[in-house]
């Protein structure tokens, strides 16, 4: 089998998928295993934020190239995963990914965004694709503000998202996230992969390390958490570093 035959199938679910909570629409895409239509398998799912930056080499700030990573993972035998990419709201991105009040941005719409995912998008995906619908096989992830909303979604919905892929989360925007982490009570074992670059801002790295300390303390207290913190000493806050981290995180979260 040639390399290209391992490439994931990229399917645009809808160019303008309705989000009634915001009276707007978003492009939603699915990356299916290369052999999806040749099998009757059911697959775990990872919902990723900032869809514009995930597999578009023409994206303004670069992309994660997750299609290329999934191709390489498939060559290694790790193809059993569906990725759902949700485009962000452009100029509304910060507000829609912010789950708390902020003096500059006001009352964030993040909780409505999570409600949209849980009540509308996830049931749609489970109905139309062969997914494993249980907690252990449903993940969420993103970077920067997308990382913040993914972390909040996982912490506040412990029966929905069993896996969290959190890259360079914007923890600076509200320290409320640390209180959520301290009070987090997973119903079953939650897997959390946290990444930070060593060359991101001092406040950013410090907040990531603070989050690491809280989660490790919860593990010591025997909470059902499997946690990994990955630090790239030369990493800055940019897609190119999230691109290299993505396959490592997928392997650890889904195939470890």
UniProtKB/TrEMBL annotation:
What InterPro entries does the record tag this protein with? Answer: AB_hydrolase_fold, Esterase-like, Mycobacterial_A85_antigen
Q: What is this protein called?
A: Putative alpha/beta superfamily hydrolase
In its UniProt entry, the species of origin is given as: Gelidibacter algens
Q: Which SUPFAM superfamilies match?
A: alpha/beta-Hydrolases (SSF53474)
Instruction: Indicate yes or no for the key word Hydrolase.
Output: yes
Question: Which top-rank group of organisms is this from?
Answer: Bacteria
Q: Which UniProt keywords apply?
A: Hydrolase
* Pfam families, A to Z: Esterase
Q: Which GO terms describe its molecular function?
A: hydrolase activity
